[in-house]
Amino acid sequence: MQLFAYCFTIITNAVVTTVKCQTQARKNYLKWEECFMKIALIAAERSKDPKTQVGACIVDDDHRILGVGYNGFPKTEHKDNDGGIYSWNSDEKHDYVCHAERNAIAHSNGNLKGATMYVTLHPCNECAKEIIQKEFKRVIYIDEKDSPFIKLEAAKKMFRHSKLGEAVQYHKLIADKYGVNFKTSLMTKVAFSIAK
């Protein structure tokens, strides 16, 4: 049973109305990890890649967002590049696509030393190099994707031998809480609803 206290009384047109206020905090609020991973998931929805949508959110120890990014082609002189200049064909796109991690770093305010990155897929070997060089403290991810282009094991090896060490961890909070099967849904479309 929740406890209520009478916080204040409103007097309107000679009618007295008593308003009840809860004295206890809401229990099902978002934890910081969930909040920032949701932001990464929302950023992933900005990707125009028809096969893989990835999002990243960078935060500092005070829970301030330092950068957000998603995977997509580099900026062009065209206002909205829908793949007309570059091709989303799997064989060609890897030469041109900017990964979510790199876009988040590029759109950050600069100093990322000690920051945490929330990303929907484990960083590839190229992004891992940049994360290590920027001296991130932690990387939290939802899923892994290994391919000839990603080189996941190389990324994991670099993380193990850096200051990040084993701090790179599998993030299951969102998957468990919302029952999303990221193995099938994340690769095709981010199956995440804010309404949940």
From TrEMBL:
Requisite cofactors: Zn(2+)
CMP/dCMP-type deaminase domain location: 31-166
Family of this protein: Belongs to the cytidine and deoxycytidylate deaminase family.
Enzyme class, broadest EC rank: hydrolase
Record-linked InterPro entries: APOBEC/CMP_deaminase_Zn-bd, CMP_dCMP_dom, Cytidine_deaminase-like, dCMP_deaminase-rel, Deoxycytidylate_deaminase_dom
The species this protein was found in: Polypedilum vanderplanki
Organism ancestry: Eukaryota, Metazoa, Ecdysozoa, Arthropoda, Hexapoda
Enzyme Commission identifier(s): 3.5.4.12
A GO term from the CC aspect: cytoplasm
GO molecular function, one term: zinc ion binding
Descriptive protein name: dCMP deaminase
GO biological process: nucleotide biosynthetic process
Gene3D superfamilies per record: Cytidine Deaminase, domain 2 (3.40.140.10)
Keyword Metal-binding part of the UniProt annotation: yes
Keywords for the protein's UniProt record, in alphabetical order: Hydrolase, Metal-binding, Nucleotide biosynthesis, Zinc
